[in-house]
Design a protein that fits this description.
Blueprint (H helix, E strand, L loop, with lengths): L1 H7 L8 H26 L1 H5 L10 H24 L2 H17 L6 H9 L2
Helix pairs in contact: 2-4, 5-6
Amino acid sequence: MLSLLRNALGAQGVLSGTVIVALAALLTAYVMAPVAQSALAAAAAPLAALNLDAPVEGAERKNVLDALTLASEPLRVFLERNAGAPERTLFVELSRRRAASDAPAVTSTTSSWCCRRF
């Protein structure tokens, strides 16, 4: 988007592509920071209960899935507020395709969790 603006202003020589990418990354971080803070705050309890030395199975797996479930709510709210129905449908379809292509590596619990969240 920023490169289109640069071309519309006729400023191709003023800002390099690297500067445009850096600006886009900074703007993304600025816009998404409150959502990331909300997601981290929501998932704090299950994340604090994780034993990082233990394998992710049993209770540890449940804590990870609980953290993902809790952290996804602020992201879902952001998506509902800032994306239209066609975009949300596209995201769900892309996640289903990815889950289907990664079928041996992704468990049915994880793929169904991803798809039902949206």
